[in-house]
Specification:
oxidoreductase, alpha/beta, binds fe (iii) ion, binds 3-methylcatechol, about 20% strand, globular, 14 strands, six-stranded mixed β-sheet
Length: about 300
């Protein structure tokens, strides 16, 4: 059909009524957003002559996406979560902020309330005999001074690229810990070197990516929430250098400043000092937080997250 089809009076009226423009109740901003969205959908249908079969296939896709709890995964894969980061980056640039550790996406696999310990934690339960990882670093304020008592909330995948809680074969909170920094602002963890993540091959996200000719893989990475009193909350990740997907992340999270070089440690004295069984991989990463302008900036954004009991 034609562009002018959507200009017909009866269609204009239909979208106005369906968006609630003809009543005085509801939320005015939400009405405008819905009206815009419905108009765009109608334009797409007309422009690409989308058939009823295709339309109902798309509706069913939404059912499957919800059933499989993959909507947040798809948002990451379509680059929308990264887009939100780019908007926040731009806002900071306009505020004249620079020099802090860059943010990058949270992703859909955080679980709240991981065990807390002071200065150090062992994160793995010993069931995965992956390479031992010594992960450590320092948290600093924008003035470069170490921040004692900062909370470093860490989560990462196992050697199969799977995350505890979502992967029921792992123990509760495996590879998830909150570590508070010591008097020098330092944190340290014993864990295992994670592998990259791949979207469930039989899921709706991978099905959509396949139709775009894209893969659904992420490079090996470690997630962090870093927070300290009076400082701006930081949501970020580090990537382990050398991964084949380092610059081909399906979720677009890699940033130059967030690449850590894994170092092979074979010195028995250093292993002993760290109370590790022997040779291991060291990953060091320091964080610099901005001062918070208000209380809201000190907290991570609100979004639905998994809660384990
Ligand atoms: C992940 O581990 C992840 O971090 C993101 C963003 C998406 C899927 C899996
Ligand atoms: Fe992840």
């Amino acid at each position: 059909m034609s562009i002018s089809f959507n200009q017909r009076q009866d269609i204009i009226k239909l979208l106005e009524i369906s968006s609630g423009f003809t009543n005085d109740n509801g939320d005015p901003r939400f009405k405008k957003i819905m009206h815009h969205l419905l108009g765009d959908i109608c334009q797409l249908i007309d422009r690409y002559d989308i058939s009823p079969e295709e339309f109902w296939q798309a509706i069913n896709y939404l059912h499957v996406l919800g059933e499989r709890q993959e909507a947040a995964l798809l948002a990451a894969g379509l680059g929308l979560e990264h887009y939100l980061d780019l908007r926040d980056d731009e806002r900071e640039r306009q505020q004249g902020l620079s020099g802090g550790t860059p943010r990058t996406i949270e992703g859909p696999l955080y679980v709240a309330n991981a065990p807390v310990s002071a200065g150090f934690a062992r994160m793995d339960d010993g069931d995965d005999d992956g390479e031992v990882m010594w992960l450590h670093g320092q948290v600093k304020g924008a003035d470069g001074k170490p921040l004692a008592g900062a909370v470093v909330d860490i989560w990462h995948a196992n050697t199969l690229g799977n995350y505890s809680f979502f992967d029921k074969s792992q123990s509760g909170f495996n590879l998830r810990r909150r570590i508070t920094t010591d008097a020098d602002g330092r944190y340290a963890a014993r864990s295992i070197v994670p592998s990259g993540y791949g979207c469930p091959p039989d899921g709706p996200t991978q099905a959509l990516l396949n139709r775009l000719g894209r893969h659904g893989n992420r490079p090996a990475h470690i997630h962090f929430f870093v927070s300290a009193p009076a400082h701006k909350h930081l949501t970020t990740q580090i990537n382990l250098n050398g991964d084949r997907y380092l610059w081909d992340d399906f979720a677009f999270a890699t940033r130059d400043e967030l690449i850590a070089n894994p170092v092979k440690i074979t010195d028995p004295a250093l292993a002993a000092k760290r109370d590790l069984p022997g040779p291991h991989t060291e990953v060091q990463f320091d964080f610099t937080l901005y001062a918070a302008a208000d209380r809201i900036e000190q907290n991570r954004i609100n979004r639905p997250r998994a809660l384990q009991d």
